[in-house]
Design brief:
Layout: E1 7-10, H1 18-28, E2 32-37, H2 40-54, E3 58-62, H3 68-82, E4 87-90, H4 105-133, E5 136-141, H5 155-175, E6 180-187, H6 195-198, H7 201-209, H8 219-230, E7 241-244
Parallel strand pairs: 1-2, 1-4, 2-3, 4-5, 5-6, 6-7
Helix pairs in contact: 1-2, 1-8, 3-4, 4-5
The structure holds nicotinamide-adenine-dinucleotide (NAD).
Nicotinamide-adenine-dinucleotide binds next to helix 1 and helix 4.
């Protein structure tokens, strides 16, 4: 029960991937869980499932992270229900693989707004409560795409994720005096059932082939890294990026 009495707010946590897996891992450790997602019905359903499976308090809320109003409402509702937010898990991100010459303004804006601006909105909304509590953990999901050159049409996505890492380092400096940490987790390819709707099969094959470790990475692998950063054991780590890559990225 490493997160007993903690309140965790997660974005994009009603899908098949990292967000929901992290919510479940943290619920098993005793945390109260706020599932937010752009899809309200799924957010409520996942919150109800986790409550009945883990016996923790949960809340399911609509929150499109590209809307500052949605983000503020979700944070206010969480504070109204639980009185505090100990962990913010910024999971929302989206990719529309496209070569630079073909990226429309709309696609650029969507990719940047979901990862980078959404992370900013959530941090801006949560930090005042964490400062009052004199403590908190902010964990944002980035990607090894933020470090590397990739040919598969990832320039906008890579820029957004690198932006979140740079943003997080400066945020970590600002909030450290309040015992708030801010870190990112950079996964490599983590399969879930929706991935084939986003990436062509040859890109999926390429992403698997470059992983030296002899199994596929799972959303739970990322969730376990998040649990460490959220737990007492992760207290002295801030401004960092934890890479969960099966060795496909080393530095
Ligand atoms: N899956 C991978 O291979 C991989 C690799 C590196 C990084 N990441 C990053 O990990 C994070 C999670 O990705 P995942 O693939 O595990 O999927 P996920 O299931 O964790 O997230 C998908 C969810 O995001 C929600 N969502 C989409 N846009 C939203 C918005 N504007 N506001 C709120 N919710 C929104 C969807 O409704 C869906 O429920 C993303 O930031 C992604 O960029 C994923």
């Amino acid at each position: 029960m490493r997160l007993q009495d903690k309140v965790v707010l997660l974005t994009a946590a009603a899908g098949a991937g990292i967000g929901q897996a992290t919510a479940r891992v943290m619920a098993r450790e005793g945390a109260s869980i706020v599932i937010t997602d752009i899809h309200e019905d799924r957010a409520r359903a996942v919150a109800a499932e986790i409550a009945s499976e883990s016996g923790v308090r949960t809340l399911g809320l609509k929150c499109d992270v590209t809307s500052a109003v949605d983000v503020k409402n979700a944070v206010d509702e969480t504070l109204g229900a639980f009185g505090r937010i100990d962990v913010l898990f910024n999971n929302a991100g989206t990719n529309r693989p496209t070569q630079v010459a073909d990226i429309t303004d709309e696609v650029w804006d969507l990719v940047i707004a979901t990862s980078l601006t959404g992370t900013f909105y959530c941090c801006r909304a949560v930090v005042p409560a964490m400062r009052k509590q004199n403590g908190g953990r902010i964990i944002s999901v980035t990607s090894v795409a933020g470090f590397r050159g990739l040919a598969g049409g990832h320039a906008h996505y890579a820029a957004a994720k690198a932006g979140v890492m740079a943003f997080t380092r400066c945020l970590a400096m600002e909030v450290a005096p309040y015992r708030i940490t801010a870190n990112t987790i950079a996964p490599s390819f983590i399969f879930n059932e929706f991935i084939p709707h986003i990436y062509p099969q040859d890109e999926i094959d390429r992403m698997f082939e470059e992983i030296p470790y002899p199994r596929k990475g799972t959303p739970e692998d990322v969730a376990n890294a998040a649990l460490f950063l959220a737990s007492d054991e992760g207290e002295y780590m801030t401004g960092q990026t934890l890479c969960v890559t099966g060795g496909s990225w080393m530095r």
